[in-house]
Design goal:
Blueprint: E1 6-7, E2 12-20, E3 24-31, E4 36-43, H1 45-48, H2 51-64, E5 75-80, E6 85-90, E7 95-96, H3 97-100, H4 108-127, E8 140-145, E9 148-153, H5 197-200, H6 207-223, H7 233-242, H8 248-251, H9 259-268, H10 280-287, H11 305-312, H12 314-318, H13 322-336, H14 341-353, H15 359-381, H16 386-395, H17 399-410, H18 417-430, H19 434-443, H20 445-450, H21 454-466, H22 471-477, H23 482-493, H24 499-510, H25 519-526, H26 532-545, H27 551-558, E10 563-565, E11 568-570, H28 574-594
Antiparallel strand pairs: 1-2, 2-3, 3-4, 4-6, 5-6, 7-8, 8-9, 10-11
């Protein structure tokens, strides 16, 4: 938009361009009726042509327009038309937290105040069911007020609009975006340096995803460094998923004087979401005791837990004592018909012991007790998930049927999409459709490969046996978390002779992930393979390993009679075995002479 352009019914005039990203451009504008400056966020024209994008903009605008909190930038207006889809935002003026970090890490007490303000704002949007998905210093503006410094969070909730259907031509994988500090639209939403493990692998997200990014932001603001070394987007994504973060006190030793703050930041960086604080409200509760008593910028927000839990626990809400808790649990368990005598006795004992606890704790105990009692029954009657059904079809050898089922599920399924993509690649491999298998892995590598199903890992091992010189294949296998890969490939390499066994052994050896396998023993075992190139390669590798213990197995192969054919005598590793023996003996003599 050019300066001077009137938009939204001529109510706003564009003043200038402020910046842009993967999905929108941001302009400085003037609201003519009130003569105040605002920010216009305009969805890029090619994205705005898609109805689903405009509808997501509309839905988020409607929800977030009700937010009125000093830590959050408000939405003023919204309009969607064939010409443009526009959000009108309160103009947040001031220095960004990223700019403040140009001078080095911030003083801990200042950081605690800023983090508490952000946590309070996150608590509000989390209570409304909104997940920010792109928390980073660039999205935090610092404003100076008569009461002190105020942190304000930009773009809250808007990042969730950046998800696009996989068949949309604008959907892009974040396997290797250009800048790890910039958010990109695509299957993995967020900024690579700050995304949570579940975000990096396109899993379902909730408030705990924001808590993780909050932890990365806090780590950086307190130490001036990231908890992971990076430096590329691909590296950050992989490290969030499979690498332990650096200890905060290692990056900033002075923080030993703030153990509770350090503990909170590291807990936010837990890989498993259920080990992190659950939401912004919980972050605020942990940060509030650390605040200076005179900090006037942080105000208490209403605890929504009472409003949420009261409808679920009517009996406890009416009578918060132990008897109310007991009646609630008993009513639920009898209605469900799942509690046996032992479980009821245990529940009663727990309830009796809980009599001295607060009402809030008793409510929590009721929920936990009910959930625990339901788990065995739910587990036994729960229908199989789509990916479990697909895996069962593949295991039964019904590959065409499995692929048809997977294709149908992928049209609507989101929760199990990574597992289904992994099984699709495995099914294509089983059908010898290797080009299509590779395309699936290219198009959604973090989805298909992070939670790699055993069937896909089997397929990848066979692929590597067939083409270990394929650098792209090696890189794709490298996206599988190291622990997952080793748990599958090490037993595979020690198993019966097959192309899968050979591929697993070769990958572990070539990449150096081999401390838990005896390479000499396994390569000697491979000399008995029925595949001549495998025999030859195993013999050559044994010569390179330089272990005389391999000589007997090599001699057995070298003395195996060759097979006559119309084209002459066929060498099936015998020549390579004989050469390996010669090299090993020569090396042994040289070593002996040195002594």
């Amino acid at each position: 938009m050019k300066p001077g352009t009137l938009v939204l019914g001529d109510r706003f005039r564009v003043v200038g361009h402020l910046g842009g990203g993967g999905m929108a451009e941001v302009y400085l504008a003037e609201q003519l009726s009130l003569q105040r400056k605002v920010a216009l966020k305009v969805l890029k024209r090619d994205l705005g042509k898609h109805p689903e994008m405009a509808e997501r903009f509309r839905r988020e605008a409607r929800i977030l327009s009700t937010v009125d909190h000093p830590a959050l930038v408000r939405i003023i207006d919204f309009e969607s038309s064939p010409q443009a889809t526009v959000l009108v935002l309160e103009l947040a003026e001031g220095e960004t937290l990223e700019q403040a970090l140009a001078h080095g890490p911030l003083e801990p007490q200042r950081v605690i105040s800023l983090l508490a303000q952000l946590a309070e704002g996150l608590g509000v949007i989390h209570h409304m069911g909104v997940v920010h998905r792109d928390i980073k210093p660039q999205n935090v503006v610092l404003k100076h007020t008569p009461q002190g410094e105020q942190a304000r969070l930009l773009d809250f909730g808007i990042a969730r609009l950046m998800e696009l259907p996989d068949d949309n031509p604008h959907a892009k994988s974040l396997a290797a975006p250009a800048d790890p500090l910039v958010s990109h639209p695509g299957q993995v939403v967020g900024t690579p340096a700050y995304v949570a493990p579940e975000q990096a692998t396109a899993q379902p997200l909730d408030a705990r995803t924001d808590v993780y990014a909050f932890g990365v932001l806090a780590f950086r603001v307190l130490s001036g460094e990231y908890p992971f070394p990076g430096p590329s987007s691909r590296d950050f994504l992989r490290q969030h998923v499979s690498m332990a973060p650096r200890a905060l006190v290692e990056a900033a030793p002075a923080l030993k004087a703030h153990p509770k703050l350090v503990e909170l930041v590291m807990q936010c960086l837990e890989k498993k979401p259920d080990r992190r604080p659950p939401n912004g409200q919980a972050l605020l509760a942990r940060l509030t005791p650390m605040l200076p008593q005179s900090d006037a910028m942080v105000t208490a927000i209403t605890n929504p837990s009472r409003r949420v839990l009261a409808p679920l626990l009517p009996t406890v809400a009416e009578n918060p004592g132990p008897s109310g808790l007991s009646r609630t649990l008993q009513a639920w368990s009898e209605k469900a018909g799942v509690l046996g005598d032992k479980t009821r006795g245990l529940s009663a004992a727990v309830i009796t012991s809980a009599g001295s606890l607060s009402a809030e704790w008793r409510r929590s105990i009721a929920v936990v007790a009910l959930m625990c009692s339901l788990i065995p029954v739910a587990w036994s009657i729960w229908p199989p998930t789509p990916y479990e059904r697909a895996a069962a079809l593949l295991d039964a050898g019904k590959t065409p049927e499995a692929l048809t089922y997977i294709e149908e599920q992928l049209k609507t399924e989101t929760r199990f999409r990574p597992q289904l993509l992994a099984l699709k690649a495995a099914g294509l491999h089983a059908s010898a459709r290797h080009d299509e298998e590779r395309e699936v892995l290219r198009s959604g590598p973090y989805q298909a490969l992070h939670g790699a199903h055993r069937l896909l890992l089997n397929a990848l091992a066979e692929d590597f046996a067939r083409a270990e010189g394929d650098s792209e294949l090696k890189a794709l296998i490298g996206l599988v978390p190291n622990r997952t890969l080793r748990a599958a490939f090490e037993p595979m390499a020690k198993g019966d002779l097959s192309s899968m066994q050979w591929g697993a052994l070769r990958y572990l050896d070539v990449t150096g992930v081999n401390e838990n396998i005896d390479r000499v023993e396994l390569y000697a075992h491979s000399l008995a393979s029925s595949h001549c190139p495998t025999r030859a390669a195993a013999a050559t590798r044994l010569a390179q390993l330089g272990d005389m213990d391999a000589v007997q197995a090599l001699r057995t192969l070298s003395e195996t009679p060759k097979v006559d054919s119309p084209n002459g005598v066929i060498n099936c590793g015998q020549d390579e075995a004989a050469e390996a023996i010669r090299q090993l003996k020569k090396a042994d003599r040289q070593e002996t002479s040195k002594r």
